[in-house]
Amino acid sequence: MAASVSDVHLLESGEAPVSRAAALGRACTEELVWVWRESEDLMVEFAVHVPCWASIERSELLRRRYLRWNPLWWFSILGCAVCILLGHGFHAACCQGAPVRADELEVERRARVWWVYCYSGGFVGTVLTDLIALVMAVVGNKDAEERNRTIRSCQVAILIQLWYMIGDWNLLFRMSRKDTVLMHAAAISRVTFGAAFLVAFCIGLLTPAGQAAFEHWAEGLPEAGAKPPPPPPRETAVTWVIRLVFCAFMVVAYLGYTPLLRLDYHQADEDTQREHCRGIWKLKVALVAGVLMVAVEGFMFSRGPGLWMLAAQPFFVLGTAYLMEDGKLSWKRFLAALGSLLPFVVVGSGFASCGPALWEILAGK
Question: Membrane-spanning regions, if any (predicted)?
Fold first, then answer.
């Protein structure tokens, strides 16, 4: 068999040819080392935002014994490393595994690796878990009602998770195009996504209807006058607990996306960017207005649906967009505001359409 051109070159230069297996092993090792370093830097970024550690230098912080000898610290780094690894693989398959541009900024690199890859990787893991549960439900010999509940729950979960992962893809795409308005909207939607579903979960725990729905799903207790249902599938419970933890974790994503919201591609000077960029203001308006809207809709329709409230959603988006853009609305800015508020619109519309049955739908009943 004829030698390849690269092998001939290596032989002429006196170097031993590298086999494909060795090259693959080296690439995997470099990937794992890179992932571990990035996840460690991400956890340090979290640590420096803790009030009691804010004044400590990063290098000094890593030498502190309460971190170096803390199993929870290393477990957190390992979890982030797994998520970044999965997220990098997912976005690499979407041609987004490299810098967004040749002139990628450091703030963009951190957002891409620490936050986009990490969160996407977490949802890659839950999607795989849901797919396994879905396949087991389809091919298993379970009770028909239990199988249908598991299938519906997994389908809803996979759709929600794919929605978030597509949003991450959109954020990197907007960064590559240097589109400030739509990039800010995509970044804000990453935070509002977690906030919307976390508020929905909290409302479920605070209202009697929501508590009954959660108790019925989690413990299999029958509703008043209803036939006792079969025990809920364990796979569904585990995956939904994981998703709720991710929703809570996504709320703190503002730490990573705040620097992006200060970035304005049309302003070269950083001081001018901080002075004129309204990304942080947009995030605050979207969070406050969205949380209030979802909370009102959730408590208002805890006893039943109210389809008339769906007509108020366009006015909610329009009014919030007007505040976010300081009255300077255009079609592009309105669409950007809609993208930022879409998680709140979807969850609020779910409350208006389904009432307390929203939690049962999310649970796959």
Answer: 72-93, 113-139, 181-206, 237-257, 283-301, 307-324, 336-359
